[in-house]
Amino acid sequence: MQSHIDENADIYTIMSIWKCRKPPKHPDDSHTRPLYKALKTMKHTPISRTLIATILLLGLSGMTVAAPYTFIIQPILPTSQTEAAYTPLIDYLQDRTGQSLSLQTTPNFISYWQEMSKGQYDIVMDAAHLTDYRIQKLDYRVIAKVAGVVSFTLVTGEDTLAFEPSELVGKRIASLASPSRGGLILDTFFGNPMRQPMLVEATDAQNAISKVLDKSVHGAVIPTPLVGANPGLNVVATEEQWPHMAISVSPDVPEDVVTALRTALIEATEQPAGQQMLQQINLPGFEEADSGLYQGYSDMLKNFWGY
């Protein structure tokens, strides 16, 4: 990559080029700010710009710019749709907290599990069983949750009449793959390992519904609220309600950042920017929660690979 420093570029822009990242809005790090101020006041001359660039590129200044906090959301949508759906949440939190956040995605639940279970992310938004796993194994803590509860339902199309899950043994059932809740619920509906349906992996819940309606599968496991929104589905069985998705943070996130994030989430319904964000991401809001609310839900993962 060609290195170029514009004549009118200030030092923070140069730092951004050097770090290949967007600088935080409020560079208030106690080590960075004094040097930033000093360099900022330097006259824009060829010599000063060359000196600054040399200092930064050689790493002799001791100046550090914190990397953005990584924020990942469970892959219940394809990658591009996840980015489009949740970018308003990231933008809102950055504006409210002054912190730099980086939205992370994975293509499916297997790759998500491989990275998430290692504690690779600072902030995570996902289902109860995965949240509890990180609480128990990685010392994450819950700072807020999506308001309400959520359950999943096994459905069929109009041409497949079934009153019990056992009637669908050997049939094609669409769902997100394990360790998504939908994938793991199949183990609950079909407890006998010798009498299982054929899992057809869906990219998201709406894709699973489409497969039912176009008759490429006999049934699907989907979030219960979607049942009423899609005529032509028959309910076979519904799982118990769980606390809705939680937002949890790693032990590496500083307490002041945790407090700012929690406040921004909980207060989102109370001010216009938050209300607009919630409308864009199609969620009712966030409410207070703690780690104890999710205790025990990770038991669903005990038979899953890598637990």
Let me know the CATH homologous superfamily of the largest domain.
Periplasmic binding protein-like II
One letter per element, helices H and strands E, the order comes to: HHHEHEHEHEEEEHEHEHEEEHHE
- Unreliable stretches: 1-41, 60-64
> What structural class do the secondary elements suggest?
alpha/beta
Describe the structure.
By secondary structure, this protein is of the alpha/beta class. A 6-stranded mixed sheet has the order 2-1-3-12-4-13, with helices on both faces. It is 37% helix and 18% strand. The longest helix has 19 residues, at 79-97. The chain is globular and about 55 Å long. The chain has 3 domains: 11-58, no CATH class; 69-149 and 243-301, Periplasmic binding protein-like II (D-Maltodextrin-Binding Protein, domain 2), CATH 3.40.190; 152-239, Periplasmic binding protein-like II (D-Maltodextrin-Binding Protein, domain 2, 3-Layer(aba) Sandwich), CATH 3.40.190.10.
Characteristics of this structure?
D-Maltodextrin-Binding Protein, domain 2, globular, 37% helix, 307 residues, 3 domains, 18% strand, six-stranded mixed β-sheet, five-stranded mixed β-sheet
Write the layout of secondary structure elements.
Blueprint: H1 11-19, H2 32-40, H3 46-58, E1 69-73, H4 79-97, E2 101-104, H5 109-116, E3 123-126, H6 128-138, E4 141-146, E5 149-150, E6 152-157, E7 172-175, H7 181-189, E8 198-201, H8 205-213, E9 219-223, H9 225-228, E10 233-238, E11 242-243, E12 246-249, H10 255-266, H11 272-281, E13 286-287
Parallel strand pairs: 1-2, 1-3, 7-8, 7-9
Antiparallel strand pairs: 3-12, 4-12, 4-13, 5-11, 6-9, 6-10
